[in-house]
Amino acid sequence: MPGRIQQAKREFGPDYMLTATKLSKVYADVPAVRTVSLTLAPGQIMALVGASGSGKSTLLSLLAGLTDADTGAVSLNDERVAGPSEVLVPGHKDIRLVHQEYQLMPNVSVRENIRYALRFFEKSYRDFRVDELLRLCRLTEVQDRVPRQISGGEKQRTAIARAIADRPAVLLLDEPFSHLDLPNRLIVRDLLFDMVREEANGLTGSRATSCLFVTHDATDALSIADSLGIMRDGKLIQIGSPVAVYQRPLTAYAAQMTGPVNILKARHLPLLGLPSSASPNELICLRPEQIVLTEGGAVGTIRALFFKGSHYELEIALSRYVLLRLLTTRTDLHIGQQVGIGVANESVWTLKP
Ligand SMILES: Nc1ncnc2c1ncn2[C@@H]1O[C@H](COP(=O)(O)OP(=O)(O)OP(=O)(O)O)[C@@H](O)[C@H]1O
């Protein structure tokens, strides 16, 4: 019924743009976050990828209003998100952060954990929404169990269900995939994807939730995010579409954070049958899938061969110093075999130092 849907939209509030401007945070003498600026639009999924200690969790906590920034500001549309030292109850009512530890209430059931997030809603809507969330998050079967009686994946999904129950404007997730096996990763991935997409497209009639998640593994980030940022030593060093960051990483670190890659000095390009570069010490990157096995190309020796299910990953030595990784579906190869390889010149991408 259109009337009810419009009503729901009003109850859940307007769409929000989250903006961080030059955020910085130093712990003792450790600069955890350094002048980070970003914008998260309604209905957008952003992923931040970075090594352990690069400042991802601290940044999430700053964005959620749970840590005071030393400098810079967070705002939701035109409203500043206050830090914990400025308010009685830390956090912002329209921003949810799901921690790595889930933080479920230990002594109440899964159902009650989710229901609690809806305590200010009318009972009939609350019951309807809890059932809907249990179904969406595949928790119906375990709804009467307490957290210690469910698996890690079920805990993770309960935490997400609780966080999205009242359709926050912004959902922040700290390593949502890190402790999950493949089936659970896919469930959580699809859940986030559907939630943001459906609501962004107006299918549920409520406001568009935007989602920012941090991870040290880019695999999920590449497939579900609209925007991918790379964090290093507290800095957001690159941000763009997953395709752009994957294909055109600015640095060796950004290349390595977004997937398997070969990084070599430009002076070795002739070994691959490519023209030598004007700057021989420049670093270049080549993704493994951009190298093909071919007759008549540069010749190398297979040093290692790893079965990956749908394909093999090969390590091919072109010289004593140059080892390349590439992918193939060929099944007739063995270690020590000499093979020809080919690389298109346009696949080569020069990195900044
Ligand atoms: N409460 C704290 N007190 C002191 N230093 C801290 C504190 N929290 C984080 N740090 C430091 O700040 C830096 C960034 O930590 P943060 O947890 O934000 O990184 P991260 O990228 O989320 O790491 P991980 O992936 O391992 O969770 C690290 O050097 C960490 O040791």
UniProtKB/TrEMBL annotation:
Keyword line: ATP-binding, Nucleotide-binding, Transport
A GO cellular-component term linked to this record: ATP-binding cassette (ABC) transporter complex
Pfam families per UniProt: ABC_tran, TOBE_2
Matching InterPro entries: AAA+_ATPase (IPR003593), ABC_SmlMolc_Importer (IPR050093), ABC_transporter-like_ATP-bd (IPR003439), Mo/tungstate-bd_C_term_dom (IPR008995), P-loop_NTPase (IPR027417), Transp-assoc_OB_typ2 (IPR013611)
Transmembrane segments: none
GO molecular function, one term: ATP binding
The ABC transporter domain, residue ranges: 18-258
Keyword hit for Heme: no
PANTHER family noted in UniProt: SPERMIDINE/PUTRESCINE IMPORT ATP-BINDING PROTEIN POTA (PTHR42781), SPERMIDINE_PUTRESCINE IMPORT ATP-BINDING PROTEIN POTA (PTHR42781:SF4)
Official protein name in the record: ABC transporter related protein
Organism: Spirosoma linguale (strain ATCC 33905 / DSM 74 / LMG 10896 / Claus 1)
